[in-house]
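As a warm-up, study this chain.
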Amino acid sequence: MNYIIFDLEWNQCPYGKDFENPKLPFEIIEIGAVKLNEKKEFIDTFHALIRPTIYRRLHFQTSKVIGLKESDLRQGRMFRDVARDFIHWCGEDYRFCTWGTLDLMELQRNLNYFRVGDLLKGPLLYEDVQKLFAITYETRKERRALNYAVEYLHLPEDGEYHLAREDAVYTARVFQTIPDDIIASNYSIDCYRNPKSKEEEIVLIYPDYEKFISREFDTKEQLLAAKDVTAVRCYVCGRDVPRQIRFFSDSSGRNHLAVGYCKEHGYIKCKLRVREAHDGKYYAIRTIKLISEEEMLDIRKKEALIRLKRQNRRRK
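Now compare it with the structure written out below.
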């Protein structure tokens, strides 16, 4: 399997959000990529400028950051042609690698908009190099800029940042420093194209937690009523467990938290995040992990505080 480390630059509406196309808030104008083999050795590069057709004028912030001019982009090719060439260049057996989570989502959104969405089938497993850097060198929750990682690792800085080709090279160099066992056990999944049926639902087992991607539902209420989606289970032994703390939601209503108890393995935290798919339906991302009694008590306090705040709002 090869690794495709890619970076995108995109433009947005130069006249403000009121005038943007809601189906394509960001239009890709440059793709840069590096191909590494399974030993993380350099194989090839890909680069292309894309002629914009939705936002033909550069947003002032985009122009300031990426260093490209409108005259440069007029020499570019149409997105459909570049996308077909890029996916063909990737080959048959590969995994995408990106710095963060946005590039893969925007690639798929642009593919859909320009009616070449069938070039990629989802959900997609990929390597979030930003997350892998955090796990390897700092803390799991830390998220750093690419230039910080390059400087931290004392890697060569022989190109400008915020150009797709150069950023792909920098990301590849950081990726080459990540131990293979961390890469293998901390892959990510992109849910822009999420499961459509129960048979397509995904369960991913990581070293210290489980992630579940549900099928789509027409409404949030249908999703939250599905017992198999809201089940609290011990991912170690696979058994459903009784709840010590029932599901409660945060202020956004999109994130729900519960705690169960497994007689064999202890307290289980279950976090359910409700997400709206690009087709207007709803799906859930459920994460389950073992926690200590102290962490359980902290969650109980949080639940009580949220309940009290809501009671006070109702009284007002």
